[in-house]
Amino acid sequence: METSLNRSLSSPIDRHPEPDWPVVSRIPITGSDEPLVPLSLAPSPIKIFPVYARQAIPGAIDECYVREGVYRQLLKVARSLPTGYGLIVLDGWRPWRVQQYLFDTLQEAIRSHHPELGEEALLARTREFVSVPSREATSPSPHLTGGAVDLTLSDADGLPLDMGTLFDEAVPASHTAALEAIPHPDARQQQARDNRRRLYSAMREQGFTNLPSEWWHYDSGDQLWAHYGGHTQALYGPAELETIESRWRRQL
Predict the structure, then answer these.
(1) I need a surface site. Which of 36, 119, 131, 165 has the fewest CB within 10 A?
(2) Tens of pLDDT, residues 166-190
């Protein structure tokens, strides 16, 4: 009998179009009071490695926060994986300042390598891997909602598996379905392809959608999730971490 694991490895990842951002930004958001919760509380086999804080990116926080509903979905994903596999969460809720830094940094890198690009083409190339920073209540950046998460698979020793490219590697091979197009993959390419399939299948089974240009990026409850999941409304708008100051101001 074919197991769900075997089915996930034998089923190619479908190629999906890039998001139509004007359409995505018009999806209504119902709003949710679900809190942001720290994934460092999660039991094994979930680990966190807050990559932007470890890289000392300005404004980054040394934790991975997601909405409570996303937290519980990720636990289901992790528990569905075969023995010896785990999840490493690299980023979740992302402060607007970090989003702006990533966007500006990538855009300048692309501009320096491709000075022939006009502003419209430059924006499109940048948005392929970093969304436009937005704190607008009606169209927030996905990571600002707490519904977007960047993650990868780990082995039994907690080390990340080969996914074909590194996290945040802004190259065509980082597109989720890119390895499916290799007609005669070698052993390493086949292993990386299977790792992507395993992650993709496990996340999709628990209701996440994937951003086609990034094998590591998944959404639940935000506008990208509504767009790719065929939902008429999104659940999560922009979120902010609660501080002792904000709590006192609200309570007093």
Answers:
(1) 119
(2) 999 999 999 999 999 999 999 999 9
Backbone torsions φ then ψ of 187, nearest 5 degrees = -60, -40
Provide the sign of the torsion angle of the four alpha carbons 206, 212, 216, 222, taken in this order: negative
89 beta partners: 48, 151
- Terminus-to-terminus CA distance in the chain, angstroms? 61
3-state secondary structure of 113: helix
Residue 115 has pLDDT above 80, yes or no: yes
Nearest-angstrom CA–CA distance, 186 and 165? 15
Label the pairing between strands 217-219 and 148-154: antiparallel
- The overall average pLDDT reported for the chain is 94
The yes-or-no verdict on residue 165 having pLDDT over 80 is yes
- Structural contact between residues 148 and 224, judged by C-beta atoms closer than 8 angstroms: yes
In this structure, are residues 78 and 36 in contact, taking their beta carbons and an 8 Å threshold?
no
Q: In this structure, what are the phi and psi dihedrals at residue 160, rounded to the nearest 5 degrees?
A: -65, 140
Q: Where are the alpha helices (DSSP H) in the chain?
A: 4-10, 21-25, 51-54, 68-80, 96-113, 119-127, 187-205, 223-229, 244-251
**Average pLDDT, integer, range 56-84:** 97
